[in-house]
Known about the structure:
By secondary structure, chain A is an alpha/beta fold.
Amino acid sequence: MLEKRAVWVLVEQAGGELKRASVELLGGAREIANKLNAELCAVLASASVVELVEPIAHHGADKVYFLESSPQGPYANETLAEILMSLIEEQGPIIVLLAADSMGQDLAPRLSAGLKTSLVSDCTLLDVGEDGRVLQTKPVYGDNAWATITSTSSLSQIATVKPGTMRAKSPDRTRKAEVIVVACDASEPCAKVIDYIPADPKTVSLEEAEVIVSCGRGVGSSGNVQLIEELAEVLGGSIAASRMAVDDGLVPSQRLIGMSGKTVAPRLYIACGISGAVHHIMGMRNSDTIVAINTDRNAPIFQLAKVGIVGDLREVVPAITREIRRVPINDSGSADRAEEILSDFRQSSGGYD
Amino acid sequence: MNVVVCIKQVPDTEGAIGIDRIRTTTKKWNLPLVVNPYDLFAVEEAVRLKEKSGPSQVTVVSMGPPSAQDALRHCLAIGADRGLILCDESFDGADSYATAIALARVIAQLQCDLVLCGQKALDTECGQVGAVIARSLGIPLVSAVVGIESGDDGKKLRVQRKLDKGAREIVEVGLPVLLTVEMGSTKPRPLQLRSVLAAKKKVIEEYDLKALGLSADEIGPHGSKTEVLSISPPKPRATQLFQPDISLPAAKQLGLLMTGGVTQREKKLLIGEPETIAAELVSFLCEKGLLRIS
């Protein structure tokens, strides 16, 4: 057969970096492409970020489709879908993979509806059958069973993949990808975004929180929880707790982090009065930056922390809150000082991550 | 405003703890049948819209076996006015795509301004039906909706969409439109006995293949785009357990196991006056871009 065979991945970015889900997806798609003996093409949905072509290639793509003028602004999926559809129809990939996040979950049904083809959403496993069909496995009946589904359509099939289920490949910096610039003219979408409401850290689910301030038994009484709440507020963070604090009734049990509670990985995790029992650590060890405040300098939590503060949280936490209130953001003076401190960190931070 | 809500009857797997996971057809599980919870949120939104903006009709449509009439009656008891069921043996084995094509055909006959669907069904969790109906009717689609308000002139809607990380956005869209509804804050109301009894008396209109005027290759397995090869018990992904380096002394290995494999990392330890500590920490957070992330 001489027909072109390709596996496509829609790659998303945030703030000039590839999204984690997209990197994972490239890893999973590379394996499928190898099994199908097909090439892996990435479609970069943002026109402005040329720098991303290299990392996409490093993560396994053979070709990168680069939309010359992708639709701008929030919720432009309607227009983006039209552009992608004509591209998919023209090139005829075997399968198009998207991450099952808010963008993929909106875009994938649009593509399948427009192309009159199959959609399997929230896949957790992708494989290739003996007959060369792509086997897409997904949880059904509320995670009580797994269904393995295949497309009966002869057209390009669409699938979304649950973030966190595919393994990202370690980047191969020697890889190069062919870049194809796609000219496209974007039409106006019917739906216009008129307002944006940021997440309220007080009600956002802990799994989605960017900043978590967590309290343990060391917090002591509910009066001290207020100090933690104030810190969380100035940081724009969410309150959480270890088992001890939940059992003491300081924080509701929905906010429990650990083996019997939630597993979180925020960008900043501040542990106040938490000793760091293994049950708790299992729930937060993947956090990006961990700050620990504890009176016991031998507490196991300090082994995990990037910044450990030995002190009484009743004094330290209000001091931090005051300091954050005082420091205006982008203050040049403090930035210089921060640079100084950071150079210390860099010298001592050889073993991080 | 005429509103059509598409609903589905699904097995209630929420409370299905301890079901025999080896038997993989839900019929054998003998689970109670309920209205797909996402759809209930859609019905609630439709009824609230009717209550707020005056004269309008809410029609609930479902494709399914005769038992799906119960699901339709549940929605009538919430406050929908009219129930329609698409019931024909030849529909059996339809996937989301074929189901949506049949639903779109009946919705086209109803002359409505607004179509609501649940974001996805609890059983198949596909989330394709809304998009296919919208495409087939040629109307725009807005997904992940958690709140609907009608605009001042009655020709536009303001809808709230759920985004990642707990954020929301408000979108303005003209009618007609199809919205897929997420489980948001507009909780479906509890049923009142009076309305349940009233709903029992209502007639559910039945549509079969002939009434829809679809050809045989558009429905059931022939109109489907996917095939389910197997349904199996879930195989949870093995969590990667920490294994200590066996060359280490036993005491050290034990210590590592007890701390969950956390090894001592390089860190900054701050001791001293609270004010100094606070200033140092805040500078560190500033530099890392961790202050006021959102």
